Amino acid sequence: MHAYRSHTCAALSAQNVGETVRLSGWVHRVRDHGGILFIDLRDHYGMTQVLCDPDSAVFSQVEKVRAEWCIRIDGEVKARDPELVNPKIPTGEIEVFVRDIEVLGAAGELPLQVFGDQEYPEETRLRYRFLDLRRQKLHDNIVLRSEVVKDLRQRMWDQGFNEFQTPIITASSPEGARDFLVPSRLHPGKFYALPQAPQQFKQLIQVAGFDRYFQIAPCFRDEDPRADRSPTDFYQLDVEMSFVRQEDVFATIQPVIQGCFERFGGRPVDANWPMISYADSALWYGTDKPDLRCPIKMQVVSEHFAGSGFAIFAKLLAQEGTEIRAIPAPGGGSRKFCDRMNAFAQKEGLPGMGYIFWRDGDDGMEAAGPLAKNIGPERTEAIRQQLGLGKGDAAFFLGGKPASFERVAGRARTVIGEELGLTDLNRFAFAWIVDFPMYEKDEETGKIDFSHNPFSMPQGGMEALERDPLKVLGFQYDLACNGYELVSGAIRNHKPEIMFKAFELAGYGEDEVRKRFGGMVNAFTYGAPPHGGCAAGIDRMVMLLADESNIREVIMFPMNQRAEDLMMGAPSEPTNEQLRELRLRVLPPES
After folding, report:
1. How far apart are CA 138 and CA 122, in angstroms?
2. Which helix (H) or strand (E) holds 413?
3. What is the spatial distance between Cα 176 and Cα 514, in angstroms, rounded to a whole number?
4. What is the pLDDT of residue 433?
5. Per DSSP, what are the bridge partners of residue 213?
6. Distance between CA 260 and CA 358 in Å, rounded?
7. Which contiguous run of DSSP H or E holds residue 265?
8. Cα(447)–Cα(145) distance, integer angstroms
9. What is the per-residue pLDDT for 139?
10. How far is CA 135 from CA 16, 48, 141, in A?
11. Quick check: 39 and 62 in contact, CB under 8 A?
12. SS (H, E, C) 508-545
């Protein structure tokens, strides 16, 4: 017999009754039923109930084991009484009577319990992540992640892609986030960088003639943490193709993502993925990653408030670049709900949120609320008809420059949809967001900079770059699902003269572009094909499939909110010897 096991803890069934078996695993819990000890023995695969009574030669040894001890047992498989069968587990028809036991690894007092659903502070969970990972839900999430990666990889191979690995140590590159820098021992004073993405390399792969590339790629960005983003590293399905247009990329990646979500999400996915322009997405949903499970669309209603009796909005509209938007709320027509949403806006940092709701009146339906009184019945009726609302419904209003309220409006739309039961929480709703602006303007400095990926091809090519930069759109696209960005990509700028002009508008001269991206610029002078691609965030995909709201629940060893690894003690202080070898000096933190 094998030194540790003849079967896993999920393998035994009624067919094994009467056999002598050997199992190894962790003590999930111990129960004493009238002197008979029952142990739920757990391994990676499942659970088996083992038992020992006082007649056993090893009863005294079994009495000593505690939760999370790692043990090996030899025993005889017996059938459970029919009334004691547990249909919830594969081994529920049998139990194993212990004949011999060996403690493989004793456990001290546990900082967190594996058995049960107790909540523990995240600091405790991350410091003892090896214990936290033994808990069933988290264990299942990590196995799901492995299966998703396997599935994505197979789907890419099936579509004729080749998997190639790109360097982990490379040069610093402006990708929209901070680099992690790595000091060079052989070249004092110079630094490598960990790649924010394999962006340049995957484009060079296309120039080299490898038509369809993919990689399950680690990416490193020194970012502030969020619930849906890791502060240090993450993994993405990285894809690039030659001789393609935007729609070719969509047609290639949709069956990969859709197939994966249908397989692991347990429900069909609507194959009709709408294409929504960035401008429309911001207008209708207040975000470039809309949750289309909520049917609410915001609308501009400025004309109904211009010159109206509501002085706040009327004065706002006299300023350039301002507008009033309405958030329809079917079924939200009560003062209590309207007051609750007004309080929500105040918590988000706004003075409040105007509202109108429609209810029964003396002569049928009437509009109620402070706004209705100020602007009069004709304007409120025009608003109601534009929004398609009726009795029992409401509308909420925000005004000013869109950048000042768009984010809150988008969040309010989501909250309204959920609270009024309008959001279908049992589906995955995908949409391509397209026509991203190439550039944005810093309101304080007036500086023009890239708003998205700097390597994208501008729509209209060189001719477009001769006009107002803020009106230039890129062949850039994102895939949104349930309020998250899952995929981001672009058709690339593969022509050096267009690239130089694009960077010039953002304040980067040709010399600087050649210095920063010399390898890619040089390659583009040797017959670069048109190419494009995208990258899908694996962590976020698994987070949605596991129905988790925090990305750390699907990462095996995540950092905490302060980008610290509490288990391994990272980041740590270097030794003086390390600093001398790298010719570095550490400055004390600013007080």
Report:
1. 13
2. helix 402-419
3. 19
4. 98
5. 162, 240
6. 44
7. helix 246-265
8. 42
9. 97
10. 28, 16, 10
11. yes
12. CCHHHHHHHHHHHHHHCCCCCCCEEEEEEEHHHHHHHH
Compute the residue count for the chain: 591
Q: How far apart are CA 112 and CA 109, in angstroms?
A: 9
Judge contact between 333 and 358, C-beta under 8 A. yes
Cross-strand bridge partners of residue 480? 431, 485
DSSP state of 352: -
Please provide the distance, in angstroms rounded to a whole number, between the alpha carbons at the two ends of the chain. Answer: 65
- Spatial neighbors of 385 by CB under 8 A, at least 6 apart, are none
Provide the edge-to-edge strand list for the sheet that holds 484-491: 162-163, 212-220, 233-242, 531-537, 484-491, 476-481, 430-434, 275-277
Q: How many CB atoms lie within 10 A of CB 520?
A: 23
Contact between residue 130 and residue 124 where contact means Cβ atoms under 8 Å apart? no
Rg for the chain, CA atoms, rounded:
30
Cis-peptide into 571, omega within 30 deg: yes
pLDDT at 426: 94
DSSP 26-76: EEEEEEEETTEEEEEEE-SS-EEEEEE-TTSTTHHHHTT--TT-EEEEEEE
User: How many of the other CB atoms lie within 10 Å of CB of 156?
Assistant: 22
Note whether 312 and 350 are within 8 A (CB): no
- The first and second tokens of residue 84, run together, are 């004691």
Residues contacting 407, CB < 8 A, separation 6+: 286, 287
| Phi/psi at 418 (5° precision) | -70, -45
Query: In this structure, is the dihedral angle defined by the CA atoms of residues 41, 47, 48 and 54, taken in order, positive or negative?
Result: positive
Two structure tokens written together for 337: 């709900």
Q: How far apart are CA 479 and CA 343, in angstroms?
A: 32
Q: Which of the residues in the chain have pLDDT under 50?
A: none
- Specify the pTM: 0.93
- Following CA atoms 335, 341, 347, 352 in sequence, which dihedral angle do they give, to the nearest 10 degrees? -70
How far apart CA 589 and CA 302 sit, in angstroms, is 50
* pLDDT value of position 174: 61
Residue 213, token pair as written in the block: 């590339």
